Amino acid sequence: MAARLEGKVAIVTGGGSGIGGACAVRFAEEGAAVLVADLDPERSANIIGEIESLGGQAAYAKLDVREGSDAVEMVAKAISEFGHLDVIVNNVGGGKGDDLLTELDEETWDWNFDFSLKPTYFCTRAALPELLKRKEGGPGAAIVNLASINGLTGIGLSAYAAAKAGVVLFTKNLAVQYGPRGVRANVIAPGTTITDFWKPIVEADPDMIGRLAEIYPMRRLGRPADIANAALYLASDEASFVNGVTLPVDGGFMAGTDAFVKAATGGRS
């Protein structure tokens, strides 16, 4: 069986670690040449080394997602290294400021949008001219944007949630505008996913992981590989008729909750 991304070229933003790193490695395992776009060259080198140890192709591009010029240079690097571009995974994002609105300052609000929505705009805009070239002689190209379940329902971090909800609607519009021209655009909305980001939090509160897992129907939290496998599907030709969807990868969190049953039965589920 042929590799699922054989002959394709992918950019993964924030590809030096966490979910982005898992996407970069998973894509390379399935035959893609991967441009790891990240602000940290050292951690990116680790991912590139892992890809090369698998016999894959990878290169690095410096990316500060708050700079539109970096996005343009990132795409140029992908073309100079690999000749074309088939897939972009817009993975970078983060949230802070879980305050009441009356205490949420403008600086924090802007930080969330500058880090969790605007980069998707910068990087997609830079990539589109190259992605649009891929319809000729093939099934076209793919955009995979990372949002969050915070962008789908109210569970806190209101500024971050608003930014990630923006990613969802931005992607739907991309799907409608560019689907006819051979570029699919879809969203993954991860649930809580354990990456290095969580290390200091867990060190300070070792029981937090268990408490959080209890609110997920699968009774565990996400792993970067869970998200990477979903991204692989959406990037591949297997999803050639999948356009404009938001795919929660959340262990069933968005399906509902058994909190009512637990409360009604004294904790028995």
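That was protein one. Protein two is written in the same sequence-then-structure order:
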Amino acid sequence: MQNSSQIKVWDPLVRIFHWTLAGSFIVAFATEDDLMDLHVWAGYLLLSVILIRVVWGFIGTEHARFTDFVTRPSTAWRYVKDTISLRAKRYIGHNPAGGLMIVMMLIGLLLTGLSGIALYGVEEHAGPMASLFANGNYAWLEDPLEGLHEFLANFMMLLVVIHVSGVILESLLHRENLVRAMWDGYKNSDNVSNQ
């Protein structure tokens, strides 16, 4: 039972998406060369939840919609500067920097997954893109695709570190447990700014 100063912010789909995405990325990242089947299935799961999340970003609940948290990059940058100077406003949904991070992560993970599917098709002649590479010699694509896939995966890990650091900083700055909020869906309703 939640107390009266708390409101439901994150619906179950957003929370399941968040933790499934995090788990599938960690599994895919950790198993890149050693457990190819697990790596591939984690990638498929990751792409599936991204597709669901994009749809939910248009038809979902208030704070799940892109219109609630996608702002101009300049607004996000201004929010980052306000956070560094410890005077950032608190948002009930995602703040402008968090919104930008979501967009960057969705695009980055989509590109990582698609480059992985292409690499899987070229190297293993398997997966959804295998038929594209069945007729002809595409071995020359292996190294560039592998380099791209690894670069994107490492770039995503950098974004994950920035994201987690931002969550910790925001939690401390606003005295709010954002990890718990993404787990149970509730945030305090006090001192909230709107976009």
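The CA atoms of residues 33 and 39 lie 8 Å apart. Keep this in mind for the problem set.
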